[in-house]
């Protein structure tokens, strides 16, 4: 007889909850604090967040124990409280479920150890198993319905976690891997390869979460489904990638955007969707409404037709200007496949080497080049004169990258006007890398706007 959680997954798609850390941060908990110990130090706060997600329509809530292993707790001097924190975290979620009278599942959250395994690091396999076993024991004792092993990149570490859990309980195990925006794990493993490896483990569901937003995880889902071998697939994206606003990182994907993708993911074959970093009860509420609108067996058709209807209802904005359209614009309008080559401005004032390289690319058939704008926070020649010099010397169409890091609103508008006057028509709007990654780590970033704000500025009509 299958566990209730597994049985429910086979009956109908489930909706998870959203971020715990985002909610705690929004309520004043510092980012460098130990979120897990709040299960004992401020249980009412944790329970209030569980209650908000259940009220928003979650079918499952995850315990506030993602980092509650001896290694991560040890950073805060709490290594001896693993059992207590995990047991308490599980009971808090269960108590909220019972008090609200809702039929939701409590999933015991387990994240990576936060330290590299040997030989890269100092943690031996048996130490890792012991740490995962200790955490799993607390969660099982607290009464979770299943364990969710999430945000892992190292499949060896995930295997150790699953083995440790299986030495404690036969409860269902959900495994979720973190991928980069390039569609591979941080160690370079492709989704199909990851799933084929995880399929060999005694798990009940497989999937991906965190690190990237809905669009990237949707693409990964399409690669995971054919390799899952009948295992239910669980997808829980971030609310996009974070954008810097002042000293804060803000996730900008709207509830409606994530709801649209949640429906698409279910239609594509996912059995459970939810949210990770940046998601809130509002995102979950919107996803609940989107999933409830899906008719079993007709979800894919409904989602596709709804998206077509919206696309047909929106008038395409005219890209015409007072000048002839650029080569880049013509190719995009005709939906031609496009290949460009990125070029970095020189670190000094001599541009001859860059121009010669651009001419060589043109001889090889390249028609468009991208000119970077201080990538990785490195000091280089300004992008605008570089783009002009390359274009005039080679005849290539240029796509000028334009970052917000070093310019306030006045500077942005001045440079955009200058680009227009010099007949630069292609601009790639970018937020920009923080200066601490580059040559002058103490330089001050501006970030009056991010890439989205820059697009709004570029769209203004005077």
Blueprint (SSEs and pairs):
Elements: H1 4-11, E1 14-15, H2 21-26, H3 38-41, H4 43-56, E2 60-62, H5 70-74, H6 82-100, E3 105-110, H7 125-142, E4 146-152, H8 155-166, E5 173-177, H9 191-198, E6 205-209, H10 214-224, E7 233-236, E8 242-245, E9 248-251, H11 255-268, E10 272-273, H12 281-293, H13 299-313, H14 327-333, E11 341-343, H15 352-363, E12 368-371, H16 383-394, E13 397-403, H17 409-421, E14 427-430, H18 451-459
Parallel strand pairs: 1-10, 2-3, 3-4, 4-5, 5-6, 6-7, 7-10, 11-12, 12-13, 13-14
Antiparallel strand pairs: 8-9
Helix pairs in contact: 4-6, 4-12, 6-7, 7-8, 10-11, 11-12, 11-13, 15-16
Secondary-structure arrangement, i.e. CATH architecture of the largest domain: Alpha-Beta Barrel
Mind telling me the C-alpha Rg? 25 Å
- The CATH homologous superfamily of the largest domain is named Homocysteine-binding-like domain
Low-confidence stretches: 297-322
- How far apart, in Å, are the first and last alpha carbons? 68 Å
CATH topology type of the largest domain:
TIM Barrel
From the spread of the alpha carbons, the general shape counts as: elongated
Biggest sheet architecture: 8 strands, parallel
